[in-house]
TrEMBL record:
Signal peptide: 1-26
A molecular function GO annotation: metal ion binding
UniProt keyword Flavoprotein, yes or no: no
InterPro entries assigned: c550_proteobact, Cyt_c-like_dom, Cyt_c-like_dom_sf, Cytochrome_c550/c551-like
Pfam families in UniProt: Cytochrome_CBB3 (PF13442)
Coiled coil stretches, renumbered: none
Domain spans labelled Cytochrome c: 58-140
Keyword annotations from UniProtKB, A to Z: Electron transport, Heme, Iron, Metal-binding, Signal, Transport
Name of the protein in question: Cytochrome c-550 PedF
């Protein structure tokens, strides 16, 4: 019979490793999901500097769905971070935050060779990105 402390340690280690592996896979090792932007005005090929869908109800609905499919696994349901990535409810609103948001979602973030956020340019359309931004502004907190 194994010593009880060894068994307890083995179980604790397995749980910790399993949780860490789950977090590692949950952050950055996922396939982006397509976003249906039907109902939104097509924005063309040139990237806009300001959100053209601000306060648009269709964009909010699409952005909510797109966020849950592509962002919530790292940034948390409802924009409330669970600690893996920043809490997006506190992003600056209006044009002040548009540039910050679009730079990060388009290009991602890499530090010391580690991907902290994958780039979504080429994966999500400009329409989908602005829809997510519209939804995030609708849940903004000061």
């Amino acid at each position: 019979m194994k010593h009880p402390n060894r068994t307890l340690r083995a179980v604790a280690t397995a749980l910790i490793l399993g949780l860490c592996a789950g977090q590692a896979l949950a952050h950055g090792d996922v396939t982006p999901q397509a976003v249906d932007t039907t109902g939104l005005k097509n924005l063309g090929a040139d990237w806009l500097a300001a959100n053209p869908y601000r306060k648009n109800d269709t964009a909010k609905r699409i952005g909510d769905s797109a966020y849950n499919q592509n962002c919530a696994r790292c940034h948390g349901l409802g924009g409330i971070s669970g600690g893996i990535a920043p809490d997006l409810r506190f992003l600056p609103v209006l044009e002040e935050g548009d540039e910050i948001f679009m730079q990060r979602i388009r290009k991602g973030a890499v530090r010391d060779g580690k991907v902290y956020m994958p780039p979504f340019e080429g994966t999500l359309s400009q329409e989908a990105m602005w829809a997510i931004r519209t939804w995030l502004e609708s849940i903004h907190e000061d």
